[in-house]
Design brief:
Number of helices: 5
CATH topology: Rossmann fold
CATH architecture: 3-Layer(aba) Sandwich
Oligomer: single chain
Shape: elongated
CATH superfamily: Phosphotransferase system, mannose-type IIA component
Strand content: 15-25%
Helix content: 40-55%
Structural class: alpha/beta
Distance between the termini: 63 Å
Number of strands: 4
Strand order of the largest sheet: 2-1-3-4
Number of domains: 1
Length: about 140
């Protein structure tokens, strides 16, 4: 399994993780780092590094999942960990993406695993279409 760090603006990460706990229960391979309005870049960097250090004691490969491409949690994750060959930084956090990352078995090809995780996240974005009504043609009693 991969270590997973959720980081996003405000308490979005905490909310996603809270929902996941209802579905799959507590997981040892996930941590949450909120980026609150009151925090500086340095505060976020410190929290990300401490969380990474803790999680990397048990998991060699870590996936950061952030909310917004170019946003502060994404940018700081890339700045601090983007050069690490055992780290990938994803964006577009949603429930299926995080769920997939949490249960994905670690293989030798981290990039292929991450592609599969992203596919799961993208496939979770859809809309409901009401099924077409099945009208029977009326006949003249035949």
């Amino acid at each position: 399994m991969y270590g997973v760090i959720l980081t996003a603006h405000s308490e979005y990460s905490k909310g996603v993780y809270s929902g996941l706990k209802l579905v799959i229960g507590e997981m040892d391979n996930i941590r949450v780092v909120d980026y609150l309005e009151s925090q500086s870049y340095e505060d976020l960097d410190k929290n990300l590094k401490a969380t990474y250090d803790e999680l990397s004691k048990k998991y060699e490969k870590i996936i950061f999942i952030t909310d917004l491409l170019g946003g502060t949690p994404f940018s700081r994750s890339v700045l601090n960990f983007g050069a690490n060959k055992f780290v990938r930084v994803l964006t577009g956090m949603n429930f299926p993406l995080v769920y997939s990352a949490l249960i994905k078995e670690d293989t030798e090809d981290m990039d292929a695993d991450v592609k599969s995780i992203i596919d799961d996240g993208q496939n979770g974005i859809t809309f409901y279409q009401k099924p077409a009504e099945n009208k029977q043609e009326e006949t003249d009693g035949i």
